[in-house]
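TODO from last week: model SET domain-containing protein.
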Amino acid sequence: MIYPHTELRYINNQIGYGVFATKFIPKGTITWALDDLDQIIDPGFVDSVDNTRRELIQKYSYRNQDGKYILCWDLGRFVNHSFHANCIGTAYEFEIAIRDIYPGEQLTDDYGSLNIDEPFQCLPEAGTSRKWVYPDDILHYHQEWDQKVLSALKNFNNVEQPLIHLIQPNYMEKIKLAIEHEILPNSIKEIYFDRHKMSK
């Protein structure tokens, strides 16, 4: 489920739609959490459906560490990519704001953390040498992303968390440990989908 104070807006013909904040979202806020309405789809089923539906699933889903497609039921599926993303995923089935997000600002992810099926070239962004997103980006950037999550978690208990009821109790225990000891028990690297291992 996406953070409630957001809305879908049309950007342009090249990008399409995006998700924008309608209220200030402080650093450390859960911006998305997996919930029971999200569809978890087996790859075999995706392969079996017609091309139109398969393309839509592949366009609007991400893949978890087991290779299953996660299709968000709400605006979460419209969150766009940025190499300077203001939200980032965790090993605990939620995303967190890694800096303050202001009203009218777009919520963005780094698609390198989403186990994409094929690499793709992105629109140029200032301040980064990255031009492509790759399926194995998580193996190269997990330490950087983990540090950003850890920094955001310092604010976790001091901001409103309208999605906190969706976080599993065992994950909440891990979050408490991370805040208390300033170290993540689980790296985002743990959600990497290893296609080579699956094909053996």
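Done. The mean pLDDT is 97.
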